[in-house]
Amino acid sequence: MNTGKRLYPAGEKDTILSLDFILNVSSWSFHPVMTKRDRVAGTHRVPGDKSITHRALMLAALGRGVSHIEGALTSLDARSTARVLRQLGATITPLRTAGGVTVRGRARFTQPRDTLHCGNSGTTARLLLGLLAGHPFRCRLTGDASLRRRPMRRVTEPLGAMGARVEDRGHDGLPLEISGGQLHPIDWPLSVPSAQIKSALLLAGVAGQVPVTIRGGEGSRDHTERMLRHLGYDVASRDEMLRFAPTGKLAAFDLSVPGDPSSAAFLIAASLLADDGELAITGVGLNPTRTGYFAIMAQMGATLAVETGADSFGEPVGTVVSQPSSLQAVDVASDAIPGIIDELPILACLAARATGTSRFRSVAELRVKESDRLALMVSNLRAVGVEAAAEGDDLVVQGTDAPLAGRVTTGGDHRIAMAFMVLGRQHGARIRVDDPDCAAVSFPGFAAALGRLSGGGQ
After folding, report:
1. CA distance 369 to 345
2. pLDDT band at residue 192, thresholds of 50, 70 and 90?
3. Tens digit of pLDDT for each residue in 342-400?
4. What is the pTM of this model?
5. How far apart are CA 239 and CA 257, in angstroms?
6. Of 10, 195, 309, 353, whose Cβ has the fewest other Cβ atoms within 10 Å?
7. Buried b (16+ CB within 10 A) or exposed e, 406-417
8. Is residue 223 within 8 Å of residue 52, measured between CB atoms?
């Protein structure tokens, strides 16, 4: 790999000591048993990027011809996207860890016979609404209990302004019905800096072949823009304004999905909290709208280095190297939150082991994720012995070096489960997670991956 600039200087390598890491495989608990100092070391990879996998499957399904996607995430959310796209007429091979996935698109979707069930995936539901807005038939969308509680009008309102008809029976969520067809150009100001809203409107522009202008949304993910540019569409960003022009038609493509930086954050956190070792995460996506947590970790005193390599489909890819670190409290400004929204649970858990009191400002968006993450983070931190509070829309965490113990209620939220599983592998911790299996939503085999960290590699 051709390496680039080290963004954060790494320290000297620590002496490596051994660690016996034992997982209690009961249905709801996770217990690390340490016989020596905690070591995290070796070279590891993380599963494919969830955001890119969703978008690649959708664009390939809407394109014409056969696309090949290597390294696609095989998680439950990705399978939800593949399932509904098959209902809409695309041919998609099973998502497997090895061998990649092949998608045969037909250039347009066909009306499904049954309701499109989006599982737990908000990305599936919201982005799919954008694509369906440009198709002249009616569809009904639903999801699991968690997804049915998540707001959808932030997407359906602008799609309605473009000409789609949405029936949600007075409830801001799923289930709902959408009837698409001939769309109008739109100039829309975002009330929330959300990549899902941006992407839904851009994909509506693709499916409906109409121009789209979006104002605001600074700091939110830009995977859709990068992919559309790579496929030849005119997507320009200037002065906090995004302009899309329907300059072509989707063609089949080949794509290698980089490792998910949000998944990498949990393994990096385990490295920072360890006693010894050096961890390298290779082949991980380094999109600057996804790596804001690097800067937060660095502010906390993390020993962290980033080496950039070649781009993949417009996305920077490289290696992240981390070492055990003494962490300090951090005050995270509100304008940084959109870029770290998925990493906030693990950052809050790092703050629980830092010196001082950390504050994460204006994190209200956590209330409408897979769970009310703000409430659950506060209650679970308290449950394991950490002082935490929600002060208005701020999350406040008081660091402690006392051994942590208690039972964590995830609410089926994968990122909460993974964050507390990381805390639970520390020496002396006795943390029980009620639903560790929900980590499979974004990181299949997470518990095993966490256990392999002490073994020095893949």
Report:
1. 12
2. confident
3. 999 999 999 999 999 999 999 988 886 767 899 999 999 999 999 999 999 999 999 99
4. 0.87
5. 30
6. 10
7. bebbbbbbbbbb
8. yes
Catalytic residues: 342
CA dihedral over 329, 288, 390, 31, signed as positive or negative: negative
Which residue type, as a one-letter code, is found at position 113? R
Tokens for 342, please give them: 């998925």
| DSSP 8-state code for residue 134 | T
Which residues, in sequence order, are bridge partners of residue 91?
A: 104
* Pair of tokens at residue 195: 């990549």
CA atoms within 13 A on the CB side of 65: 8
HSE-CB of 288 using CA atoms within 13 angstroms: 3
**Residue 144 corresponds to which amino acid?**
D
For residue 431, give Cα distances in angstroms to 325, 372, 407: 22, 21, 6
Give phi and psi for 106, each to the nearest 5: -120, 15
Task: Give the Cα separation of 419 and 434 in Å (integer).
Answer: 13
Residue type, 52: I
In degrees rounded to 5, what are phi and psi of residue 320?
-115, 130
